[in-house]
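In the design runs reported in the main text, the only information available to the sequence generator was the tokenized backbone. The following block is the verbatim input for one such run; it is reproduced so that readers can re-run the procedure and compare outputs position by position.
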């Protein structure tokens, strides 16, 4: 997809370079956050500035898979051609309102990881959920957790002001949505997610692993898998402690084995299966 830049984006690049640090993009659904993020990554790389991209949108994820938070560090221009995450965290919902605290904690974790890697600029993309108390809680929560130096606020009218008016001491760059920003229907969004999952699970196989030594998590807490019925087809995070190594589809369970369909070839080192609310089949 060709990105058509707006004239004011050039100025934004200069401001980002001047202030550096973490910048979070806010805006309603289809306001062009992910497209602008990609443009900024390209522009920064063309000026030899290392940039980390944190995709905290669990619905219309652009870098990682839906239901996850992901990140990648872009070191050189060619890295943009491989727009795939290097770290992921399985959240387990496509609806950000259902997992607010997990999303905030996960976004912070990805930003902190990027900081440790010493990148110059960290760009954080977000969901289009900005309205009401839930939208406000999610955005303010993220901002408090990651403490960005800059906010890139894309708004048609004043739809972000109920959030921005609560912010003190952070540079806010207000922009209008790109003239090229297009509305995507609910059906198009569902199709997009299906396509992403299909591509990811293509060629996957079912692996059976011993449940001994495995922990089962839901909503950030362990649970006893013997006590609950888990629907086959549930999307799971295959984790090494808190880090998601890959996604899988839960196929079933016996007393001592768990069957999971995954593109991963081996599940050695895996010690945690994270369940969510997404059913794939
Ligand atoms: N500058 C641009 N040039 C070309 N296409 C654009 C541009 N800006 C936005 N679009 C198109 O508009 C649509 C919405 O943009 P985008 O996905 O970036 O929005 P978003 O704010 O990230 O949406 P969401 O909240 O759903 O994640 C996409 O189809 C995108 O390709
Ligand atoms: Mg987006």
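Verbatim output:
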């Amino acid at each position: 997809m060709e990105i058509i830049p707006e004239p004011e984006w050039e100025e934004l690049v200069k401001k980002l370079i001047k202030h550096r640090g973490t910048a979070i993009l806010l805006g309603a659904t289809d306001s062009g956050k992910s497209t602008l993020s990609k443009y900024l990554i390209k522009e920064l790389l063309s000026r030899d500035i290392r940039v980390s991209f944190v995709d905290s949108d669990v619905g219309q994820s652009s870098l990682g898979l839906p239901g996850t938070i992901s990140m990648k560090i872009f070191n050189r221009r060619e890295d943009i051609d491989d727009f795939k995450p290097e770290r992921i965290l399985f959240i387990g919902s496509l609806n950000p309102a259902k997992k607010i605290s997990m999303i905030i904690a996960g976004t912070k974790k990805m930003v902190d990881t990027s900081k440790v890697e010493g990148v110059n600029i960290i760009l954080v993309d977000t969901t289009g959920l900005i309205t009401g108390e839930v939208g406000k809680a999610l955005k303010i929560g993220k901002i408090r957790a990651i403490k960005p130096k800059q906010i890139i606020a894309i708004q048609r009218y004043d739809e972000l002001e109920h959030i921005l008016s609560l912010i003190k001491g952070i540079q806010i760059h207000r922009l209008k949505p790109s003239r090229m920003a297009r509305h995507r229907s609910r059906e198009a969004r569902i199709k997009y997610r299906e396509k992403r999952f299909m591509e990811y699970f293509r060629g996957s196989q079912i692996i059976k692993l011993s449940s001994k030594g495995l922990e089962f998590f839901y909503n950030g807490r362990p649970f006893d898998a013997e006590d609950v019925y888990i629907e086959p087809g549930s999307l799971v995070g295959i984790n090494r402690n808190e880090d998601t190594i890959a996604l899988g589809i839960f196929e079933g369970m016996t007393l001592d084995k768990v069957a999971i369909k995954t593109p991963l070839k081996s599940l050695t080192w895996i010690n945690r299966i994270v369940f969510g609310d997404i059913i794939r089949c």
